[in-house]
Write a structure and sequence with these properties.
about 280 residues, alpha/beta, Rossmann fold, SIR2/SIRT2 'Small Domain', 2 domains, six-stranded parallel beta sheet, three-stranded antiparallel beta sheet, 9 helices, elongated
């Protein structure tokens, strides 16, 4: 691998990269990633420093109100092309290299951007789903997001995508005028369509979480990168590792809910830290 920039080892007593390497070397790793891993790809973080306060739409709002559906789909349509055009960064590529070298058993991600697969990771559990797939809430039929996007563009030619948009972490933008927007519907049963992502107020599918938990259970250590662990599913995976006495290394610029329980907490950017860890752990 190319020479990776070493994250700044803080001079205030915080953990260093060397400490993380000592904990992780020689162990098979599971990895959990959050929004902080994708910020260097131009996708903003919900909770990172400087992130605006947002109140994301809940599943109950979306499911029960056509206006909420219009607002979501109009904003999602505007933001999707920009979101889909994002490219993997050094952190994504480092995790793919670690998997290919047999150091990790794959990636569990809270992100919905698909960047781990595009970076070359082969085993990825999309804990909260993925924006490139759409499902019908009535009959369960699944659709490629591109086909739904084409239908929306044809039905709403007035909805021009601005050159500069303020992208939200889940791939949408804020839209005020939604009255004229024509909703996409299921071509099988005319039911309500929804991106295959876990909304606030929804539960992670049982089978998907079981796969993620199995990855953590089969590993010797857990690396958590770019997640504040505010979402319950992340904490549950942390606890899975701790119950089997596997050490946990957390990489995040801000405070997380797991800091006090981690063997090592690195207050550093995810991309450069993962790249530096990969350089030290591969063929170690």
């Amino acid at each position: 691998m190319a020479q990776a920039a070493t994250p700044d080892s803080s001079t205030d007593g915080a953990a260093t990269l060397d400490e993380a390497v000592r904990v992780l070397r020689g162990r098979r790793l599971a990895v959990l990633t959050g929004a902080g891993v994708s910020t260097d790809s131009g996708i903003p973080d919900y909770r990172g420093e400087g992130a605006p306060v947002r109140r994301p739409m809940t599943f109950q709002q979306f499911k029960g109100d056509t206006d909420f559906q219009k607002r979501y789909w109009a904003g999602s349509h505007l933001g999707y092309r920009h979101f889909a055009a994002s490219r993997p960064n050094d952190g994504h590529r480092a995790l793919a290299a670690l998997e290919q070298a047999g150091v990790t058993n794959g990636v569990v991600t809270q992100n919905v951007d698909g960047l781990h697969l595009r970076a070359g990771s082969s085993r990825v559990v999309d804990l909260h789903g993925t924006v490139d797939r759409v499902v019908c809430l009535t009959c369960g039929q699944a659709f490629a997001r591109e086909t739904v996007a084409q239908r929306m563009a044809e039905a709403n030619p007035w909805l021009e995508r601005p050159d500069e948009i303020r992208l939200n972490p889940d791939g949408d933008v804020d839209v005020d005028d939604i009255d004229a927007f024509v909703l996409p519907v299921c071509t099988v049963c005319s039911g309500v369509l929804k991106p295959d992502v876990v909304f606030f107020g929804e539960f992670v599918p049982v089978e998907r979480f079981a796969e993620a938990r199995a990855m953590v259970q089969s590993a010797d250590a857990l690396v958590i990168a770019g997640s504040s662990l505010v979402v319950n599913s992340g904490i549950r995976l942390l606890e899975t590792a701790l119950r089997k006495k596997a050490p946990v290394v957390i990489v995040n610029r801000g405070v997380t809910k797991g800091d006090a329980r981690a063997a090592v907490k690195l207050s550093a950017g995810a991309s450069e830290t993962l790249a530096a860890l990969a350089e030290r752990l591969i063929d170690a």
